[in-house]
Amino acid sequence: MHALSFLLVIKFVLLSLSEGAASQSGPVKAIGMQKYTRPHSYGNNYTFDERDGWQTANFTEFMHAHVNDSRSNIGRAFSKEQSDIDKQVKDLLGLMKGVGSWTRVTTTWYTGDDLKNPSCWQNTKWAPTDGSFACALTLEGWLGRPKCFTFLELCNGPKKCIFVRVIDTCAGCARGSKHVDLTKSAFRSLADLDRGRLDNVRMRPATHPDEWYEELWGPKHY
């Protein structure tokens, strides 16, 4: 299939899935949410260098982790057109992207009553569930702590990475620690819940999604 024809097909399929995310329901909504709940990988060729952090991610390889199945028949001969398609597919998917420098953090998970009354809102009826992709950060002493409502990319090694939104503070996290307390689904995407605590996770800021799912991140406006 010619690359440009493929692009037209992709546009039709993805637009039909993503149009009006707020009004989606059932299977269509579940498919849309999977883009943000499925862990992403930077691939086998990416290693961590203690001197300067993660290697720079190649966007084409990053996209292949998400859309490789649907693009398996595109030939390498269309390299320039593939580059254009990568940009178009990114725009259509509304994928988030990590930006800036990596920071080493500790991660744990929380549930139950601790989910109630997220402190980033002064007054909200919403609370995250175990299925949300959200986090609470150290309450005091973390210099340069990410602000409420920002999105973060977290990686437990280069092959297990997720995006979460900051919605709460963690009073039980040690003062001055760089501690990210995750909802269960978010932590489970990085490691088994039985691990309880991960001390070698990397974190960096991330862009905001183009679509919005309140179940995952809470109210968009604050």
TrEMBL record:
Organism of provenance: Agaricus bisporus var. burnettii
Signal sequence segment: 1-23
Protein's name in the database: RlpA-like protein double-psi beta-barrel domain-containing protein
Record keywords: Signal
InterPro entries linked: Expansin_CellWall, RlpA-like_sf
